[in-house]
Structures are given as structure tokens and as C-alpha cells.
Write a structure and sequence with these properties.
By secondary structure, the chain is of the alpha/beta class. It is built from four helices and six strands; from the N terminus they run βαββαβαββα. Strands 1, 2, 3, 4, 5 and 6 form a six-stranded parallel beta sheet that branches. Helix 1 packs parallel to helix 4.
């Protein structure tokens, strides 16, 4: 299995979560970790799984990430499984749905990817982090759920 973990990180928190996820995925095959600003269309060639993560900035996908995702061609993830995560400070229940991850997941689907697991938010302390206690372990568990999802798609 070939996996690609793509992330954007301003303070290092999203990168840390991406690296933890990649470590878990390495148990199932080759994994590349790429910063979103370095992502090219050719990075997507032949991948079975793409995991995309970014922080939430102003209740949205960071402005730095948007053009990267917009320039990927329609169908670029056709046949690939996908998963999305973000990092965010804890917000009220009302505001917690205004994070980057729903938009990241929607973009992955529009590119032709098949979601494996529900999108996930990992919480950081304040604006700059670090991740709350237990979030690294939650990231490992989320990666395990991705692996379990991959196992169930192989049986089809």
C-alpha cells in the first residue's frame, strides 16, 4: 500500500499529528509525508491512501492551503481512499462545527477520493499549541481506524 500524508502547519502541531499518523500507516506499507506547499499532482500518482490535515484558521481552511487544493485536477484521487483531519483550539459546541476539516474532507471527495473514516479534529492549547494531553494518542487511534477501514475495503 502506498500512502501520502499531506499537511500544512504553522506552529508545528498539525505536523506532529501528521507524523504520528504516518508512523502508524508505515506498518502497512510505504508512506510519504509532504508539506502542502510542496504537493504536486505527481505526488498523487499511484497512491492508495491520502490523508490531509491542516490547522483551522479563522474557522476555515488556511489561505495558504486553499490554492494548493484548488489547483489539483478533477479526479486526481479517483480510486484512492482518503481521510481528513485538522487541529483547532477547543470551541463551544456551537462553533466547533466551523473548523477546517469538513471543507478538507469535501475537497478530497470532489477530487474523487473515497472517505474511509469520519474527519477528525485534534485540539491544541490556545492559538499556538501544543496539543492537549491525550491528543497524540487519539491521533494514533484515528490512524488505527484508517488501517481498519483499509482492511475492510480489501475484502470487497
Amino acid at each position: 500500500m502506498r500512502s501520502l500524508v499531506v499537511y500544512y502547519s504553522l506552529f508545528g502541531n498539525t505536523q506532529r499529528i501528521a507524523e504520528v499518523i504516518a508512523e502508524r500507516l508505515e506498518e502497512e506499507g510505504h508512506v510519504r509525508v509532504v508539506g502542502a506547499d510542496q504537493l504536486t499532482t505527481s505526488d498523487l500518482d499511484g497512491v492508495d491512501l491520502v490523508v490531509l490535515g491542516s490547522p483551522t484558521h479563522r474557522m476555515n481552511v488556511p489561505e495558504t492551503v486553499r490554492p494548493v487544493l484548488e489547483r489539483l485536477p478533477k479526479g486526481a484521487l479517483q480510486g484512492a481512499s482518503v481521510a481528513a483531519f485538522d487541529t483547532s483550539y477547543k470551541m463551544s459546541a456551537l462553533l466547533s462545527r466551523f473548523t477546517a476539516v469538513p471543507k478538507l474532507a469535501r475537497r478530497l471527495r470532489k477530487l474523487g477520493g473515497t472517505p474511509l473514516v469520519p474527519p477528525e479534529t485534534f485540539h491544541v492549547l490556545g492559538r499556538e499549541g501544543p496539543p492537549y494531553d491525550g491528543e497524540i494518542e487519539r491521533a494514533r487511534a484515528w490512524a488505527d481506524s484508517i488501517l481498519a477501514g483499509l482492511g475492510s475495503t480489501r475484502g470487497r
